Amino acid sequence: MRFTVKIAALAMILAMLGCQPSHNGSTGDASPAIPATPSHALTPTPVITPRLTHAYTPNLTPVATPSPTAQPTGDELLSAFMSTMTIDEKLGQLVMFGFSGTDAPSADFVEFYNEMLVGNTILYGNNISNDDSDGGFSRCKALLDDLIDATAASERIPMLISIDVEGGGVTRLKWDKWPRHAYTLGELNDSELAREQFQYIARGLLSVGINVNLAPCIDVAPSPLDTFLYKRIISSDAGIVSRIGVACMRGLLDEGCISFVKHYPGHGATTEDSHEITPVVDKTLDELCQYDLLPFIAAIEAGVPGVMVTHILYPQLDVNNVASTSAVLIDEILRSQLGFEGVVMSDDFRMAGLTRTMTVGEAAVSFINAGGDIILCGARLSLQREIMQSLRSAYDSGALTLDRIDESVRRVLQMKIDYLDWTPRV
Fold this sequence. Notes:
With about 425 residues, the protein is of the alpha/beta class. The chain has 16 helices and eight strands. It has helices at about 1-15, 75-80, 85-90, 105-115, 135-150, 155, 180-190, 190-210, 240-255, 285-290, 295-300, 325-335, 350-355, 360-370, 380-395, 400-420, and strands at about 95-100, 120, 160-165, 210-215, 260-265, 305-310, 345, 375. The longest helix is centred in the middle third of the chain and has 18 residues, at about 190-210.
């Protein structure tokens, strides 16, 4: 009875849905047929094909990401600048000349500077009026401003402008806080004190436009007070000279003033004055390395940018040439063995230690060919002219090659880039 009611109820539901059961002869096994789609049932959503007004083919080629324009490296920029320089302009970068005058450079020197495109200059005591109320600082600044305004070479490339302020008796200007002797710094043996003294010196020099200090002396001597350098030598102890000398150098560099240590390979082994004669030091390289060269090795390891070479003969190393014209002392030992890559400057070419061995013109060519970079010569116009004429003649004859010239020019210009806030412009 209950089963019959369920069948009847199912038939009623199917009738309401518009479906009729199919019968296969047995009501108990009846299965509903698949219902017919009613007229009001939902129809599938039509697919809409967009109407294109033009044929379109997708670009499947990958688009390369644009790379930024490569900027020239510092070396490339410097090389490009050097390619615009004339040979006379290059030779002018290899000298540092002095001039006469305290209020303005003399007219004959200005004319020569412009004729030879002299690229660097040095001041000596006779350029400074240190009896002025401010110790000569203001007058020195005006003098250098006039020099720069009057010289053609400085319009394109800034000058290295040097002086030697070591302390004690070698101060040139009159300082409010008097710099101590090198020997006193050695006795105090206080690296921080030495560094602070040369920071103070650097600030004073930079304030008037001087960007190079030819200091400190890092010569070492068994009896410093018996040498002609006297209290310009820090100590008889090579370790103290190394430590205090490096502190002085760092004090200058801290403020952005270039340091040239001197007098490589060491003036302490002789009591003779290379301004007057040619001293002779009969030492082997091993002997020099155990004492005289130790402060220079320390300075090179500490990153000194410049080294000044002296006019002393070392016959055990080079029997024919003083250090300032010797490829053995400059190129082989200083550069190759000690690893110095900076600028090598000669001591003053007016000194008898050099001129007693060869002419100034011969020495100029020998110094550059030996690996030197800047020839120093104070205010003697005849010698300066001989230097420039000899360099140009040596280039014209092939005795001085363009590659050798360019090697030194690159070092000098790199120093100006590093310390003078200068960027070469092609």
